[in-house]
């Protein structure tokens, strides 16, 4: 079966019968994929609607298509997952955003923490835009109907306060040896929303653990081994989706 390419567009680009694609996506259709008029794509509005579209006009940075059918889904996953990720150095955050999107995370919140070594300029606007683009591309590739929200950079207190009402709140701490994630999750019943905090390369400070605990986040570990920050995030998301979501 031939793969049909998928593209997210704004709702203002969709009418009852036609779709207009502009910018980089239009250039990808024209120059990279070398698609022709008459071929089909899927177009998504980021709010649950997926449209099967036949291309009718391909121009430089502008593509038009006719809607042939449409379908609606209310959600990507049975559980809402918010990942608060301490910003790591280099391109690790790019990798985390990409893979967390594939694993069905709902929101990704970059966190500026005590042991972050990366320098953030102008509130990280350029970095956030990059991560939003990565999330969009990963959502298209992984057949998601929704793009995870990539928020502006928060501090820990802001994150904990905003997500204090989720059903389950976990902060991963390498010094937590008594209570692992498996034991902690086995004690819980039905969970519809979960917030997790993962520190940067240097982990969380004792003060940050105290802050998270004061907002109801429970400290948990992932076993005896010390994991890299990108491994922690993806391992935790996989386990949570297996138990409560749609993996397996």
Number of strands: 11
Count of runs of 4 or more consecutive helical residues: 7
Task: Give start-end ranges of low-pLDDT stretches.
Answer: none
- Second rung of CATH, namely the architecture of the largest domain: 3-Layer(aba) Sandwich
* Helix fraction by DSSP (H/I, runs of at least 4): 25-40%
- The radius of gyration computed from the alpha-carbon positions, rounded to a whole number of angstroms, is 20 Å
Query: Strands of the biggest beta sheet: in what spatial order?
Result: 8-7-6-10-9-11
When the domains are counted, the total is: 2
- Let me know the CATH homologous superfamily of the largest domain: SPOUT methyltransferase, trefoil knot domain
Q: SSE string, helix = H, strand = E? A: EEHEEEEHEHEHEHEHEH
CATH topology of the largest domain: Alpha/beta knot
What overall form do the CA principal axes indicate?
elongated
* Average pLDDT, all residues: 88
Give a short account of the largest sheet.
6 strands, parallel
User: How far is it from the N-terminal to the C-terminal residue, by CA?
Assistant: 24 Å
CATH class of the largest domain: Alpha Beta
Instruction: Estimate what percentage of residues fall within beta strands.
Output: 25-35%
């Amino acid at each position: 079966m031939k793969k049909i390419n998928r593209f997210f567009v704004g709702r203002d680009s969709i009418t009852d019968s036609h779709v207009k694609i502009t910018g980089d996506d239009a250039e990808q259709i024209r120059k990279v994929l070398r698609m022709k008029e008459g071929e089909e794509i899927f177009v998504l509005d980021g709010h649950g609607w997926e449209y099967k579209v036949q291309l009718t006009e391909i121009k430089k940075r502008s593509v038009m298509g006719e809607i042939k059918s449409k379908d609606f889904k209310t959600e990507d996953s049975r559980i809402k997952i918010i990942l608060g990720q301490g910003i790591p150095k280099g391109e690790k955050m790019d990798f985390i955003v990409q893979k967390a999107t594939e694993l069905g995370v709902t929101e990704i919140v970059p966190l500026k923490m005590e042991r972050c070594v990366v320098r953030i300029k102008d509130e990280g606007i350029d970095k956030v835009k990059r991560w939003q683009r990565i999330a969009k591309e990963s959502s298209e590739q992984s057949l998601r109907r929704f793009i995870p929200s990539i928020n502006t950079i928060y501090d820990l207190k802001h994150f904990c306060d905003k997500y204090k009402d989720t059903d389950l709140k976990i902060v991963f701490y390498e010094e937590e040896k008594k209570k692992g994630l498996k034991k902690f999750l086995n004690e819980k019943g039905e969970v519809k929303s979960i917030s997790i905090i993962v520190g940067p390369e240097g982990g969380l400070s004792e003060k940050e653990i105290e802050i998270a605990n004061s907002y109801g986040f429970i400290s948990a570990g992932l076993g005896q081994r010390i994991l890299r920050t990108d491994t922690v995030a993806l391992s935790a998301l996989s386990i949570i989706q297996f138990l409560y979501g749609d993996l397996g």
